[in-house]
Amino acid sequence: MKTQVAIIGGGPAGLLLSQLLNKAGIATVVLERRSRDYVLGRIRAGVLEWGTAQMLREAGAGARMDAEGLIHDGCYLSSGDTLIHMNFAESCGRQVMVYGQTEVTRDLYAAQDAIGATILHEAEDVALHDLGSEAPYVTFTHGGEPRRLDCDYVAGCDGFHGVSRQTIPDTVRREFEKVYPFGWLGVLSQTPPAAEELIYANHERGFALASMRSPTLSRYYIQVPLSDRPEDWSDEAFWEELKRRLPADVAQSMRTGPSIEKSIAPLRSFVCEPMQWGRLFLCGDAAHIVPPTGAKGLNLAASDVHYLSSALIAAYGPGDRAPLARYSQDALARVWQAMRFSWSMTMLLHRFPEQSAFDRGVQVAQLEELAKYPAARKLLAQNYTGLPF
Ligand code: RFL
Ligand code: PHB
User: Fold this and answer.
1) Catalytic residue annotation
2) Which of 1, 79, 199, 363 is positioned for an S-S bond with 210, CB 3.0–4.6 A?
3) Which residues in the chain are classed under CATH 3.50.50.60?
4) What is the rounded CA–CA span in Å between residue 66 and residue 60?
5) CA distance linking residue 104 with residue 11, whole number of Å
6) Which fold has domain 180-266+350-385?
7) Where do the CATH 3.30.9.10 domains begin and end in the chain?
8) Which atom of ligand 1 lies nearest, measured to the CA of 301?
9) Alpha carbon nearest to ligand 2 atom 5, residue
10) CB atoms within 10 A of CB 43
11) pLDDT tens-digit profile of 142-164?
């Protein structure tokens, strides 16, 4: 098999890249380890920056998002029973789109099918070869048969546990990591959202988040110790704990129901540098992980795809290879901004096992700063709604 750009991983990064390249007349093949149903079974991100929503439109995959997504002008931070309103529209004139990653992925698959793009599911044993040469290739097993894919470039969009990043030699690769001493227990339920906007709650019992997917579908999270397992939490125990952490009036009026999905995700910050080695380019979770507190993971995947798709289009079209040579530098500058923001939101809103009275004093001061000063809210709003590319 031969193509121009081999894309490893059919999550949001791989599918969006494939869609944008195909639309520009560049041939791709996507190799995805899992089945399509498995990929669509993952419940993850819920908040899209405006730039991400715009990229989905440009990719021809934005129609359902525009019809069904929820445009939010702000969100709340809460400190005990006190609500602090972040008005994004007023602070920076921007908004976000609340639309689930599952739906984004479904729409991208539909758009890829509509243009006849090649996505090979259940591609196993993917290995990357000759990345330092002008003629790299990928080997894999598909339907029990060994296969080879020749290409000009490889895009590693295979998530945190993929093979692409590991292919960059240890002597070249630098990894930066911070692991947080807790996880998020998430529940999806067929109930109306607790409030019209998201609530990020700092409470003495731990962080909680009230989010949503639609007017009838809610997504909630609570901070839990890393030793907890989802089976340890009955629906009743989850709702009781969530209500204790949200402001009392929100907790009193919120509707609860059976959980549709329950899972625990650990929190970590991680960056791999460089994001490019020879003809390999990393995009999304393959290169970096953020704690979900800033809602940046999926948006960073889209931002990498923005830099890589435009660089490949410049290389294949006018023959300008400079943007491709600069890819790692350009993508990483934005990645580190999102790292800082996600880290600071995580530090601000969680209760840490070893938190001292001093650490808590700093949290209280920062929450008061946000409540008092428009300049502090503006900075948060600019980061949350998305820095420019
Ligand atoms: P993905 O989605 O992990 O997709 C990678 C794909 O590669 C496949 N793969 C392979 N394929 C072939 N060969 C191999 N060897 C392979 N190894 C892996 C995998 O099967 C998979 O299909 O990475 P991608 O595309 O970079 O997308 C990143 C996002 O999924 C991720 O950053 C977000 O989900 C993070 N995230 C959030 N991001 C936001 O922007 N806003 C949010 O509100 C938000 N909330 C969240 C989140 C992540 C969460 N969890 C569970 C980690 C909330 C949570 C709880
Ligand atoms: C979600 O709805 O899943 C969600 C929203 C905001 C976040 C993280 C997750 O910061």
Assistant:
1) 72, 200, 292, 296, 384
2) 199
3) 5-70+97-177+268-345
4) 12
5) 10
6) D-Amino Acid Oxidase; Chain A, domain 2 (3.30.9)
7) 180-266+350-385
8) 26
9) 46
10) 18
11) 999 999 999 999 999 999 999 99
Beta carbons of 233 and 220 less than 8 angstroms apart? no
Name the residue of 30, 36, 44, 97 whose CB sits within 8 Å of the most ligand 1 atoms, as the mutation to test its pocket. 44
Neighbour-count burial of 285, counting CB atoms closer than 10 A to its CB (0-12 exposed, 13-18 middle, 19+ buried):
buried
Pocket residue to mutate for ligand 1, from 37, 101, 207, 226, most atoms within 8 A of Cβ: 101
Residue 365 alpha carbon to ligand 2 centre in Å: 25
Q: Give CATH superfamily name and number for 5-70+97-177+268-345.
A: FAD/NAD(P)-binding domain (3.50.50.60)
Of ligand 1's listed atoms, the one at least distance from the Cα of 163 is: 15
Q: Copy the structure tokens of residue 72.
A: 């939010």
pLDDT of residue 44: 87
- Tens-place pLDDT, residues 201-224: 999 999 999 999 999 999 999 999
